[in-house]
Amino acid sequence: MKRALIPLLFFIGLSVALAISLTKDPRRLEDTLIDHPFPAFSLSSLDEPDAVLTEQTVQGHISVVNVFGSWCVTCNVEHPILMEVSRDENIRLIGLNWRDDREEAKTWLAKRGNPYDLIIFDPDSELAIPLGVSGAPETFVTDKNGRIRYKHSGAISFEDWDNIFQPLFKTLEAE
Amino acid sequence: MRVLFCLLFFWALPAFAQTAAPSANPALDDRAREIAQSLRCVVCQNQSIDESDAPLAQDMRKLVRRRLEAGDSNEDVINYMRDKYGDFVLLKPPVQSNTFLLWALPFLLLLGGLFWFIRVGKRPS
Question: Using the beta-carbon criterion (under 8 Å), do B55 and A29 form an inter-chain contact?
Fold first, then answer.
């Protein structure tokens, strides 16, 4: 009689294991770069094709690096929020213009407003791949030492800004 | 007319179908290809970056080549991508503590089944 329960127990165990894995999103990548230094790069700025920007851009102060592109639909949704939060002078907001056309990106920003203090132009994913970027928008927060401390996939909402970013800035500021 | 049609039809020569420019280093091409086949395109899921036409996959192929040209071994390149995108970027899951069950379960089930089969088979009907 007891032996008959074995397949049932096996089935229950399997169901539980599968139910747990259903709650996990396989599209969510691991955040392997947290606490790692911001990758080295050498790229031009969106406005000045001759300028050379390097990883020093994110060193010495807390920075928010936002991956965007004029082709990116969700970036339209996120844009007003970035415009609003960039009013805070203490926040250094750096744009990473990813896989875009220089002129199209400029037009996109001219139409909507430019929330960024500085924009890195990365048409061939030279910085995006070392950052483990898989889509736009994606946002990174780096500390004063230029280490990546947080990665946000998808558009930032005002709730995210108040509940995740602001407390994080406070922690990083206190370090 | 028919001749023209035939001409147009056969115009699609396979030589023109190649997207990558022929390179002076076929050995490097082979290695780049081999690596690309083992890396997952992170935006298209179950496709390797070798098969995918996604823009990010194209850029990842370029990066694989650049790193090989800079003198990296195949393993270096794969580890580089793994550092950036995690184990997910590997099409074949590595054998490690969190994938042990995945690799071992088929064999454990087979053993269990054999055990059961022998025991039941021995029982007098």
Answer: no
Q: Do A33 and B84 touch (CB under 8 A)?
A: yes
Token match 């050498």: residue? A42
Shared-domain flag, residues B73 and B109: no
What tokens appear for B24 in the block?
């002076």
Measured between beta carbons, the chain B residues lying within 8 angstroms of A126 are 59, 63
Residue A35: its chain B contacts at CB < 8 A? none
Same structural domain, B84 and B99 = no
Section A5-13 average pLDDT: 89
User: In 10 A of CB A126, how many CB atoms?
Assistant: 17
Q: Residue written as tokens 């995918």?
A: B52
Global pTM reads 0.79
**B20 located within any domain:** no
In angstroms, the separation between the Cα of residue B64 and the nearest Cα of chain A is: 11
Q: What is the ipTM, given to two decimal places?
A: 0.80
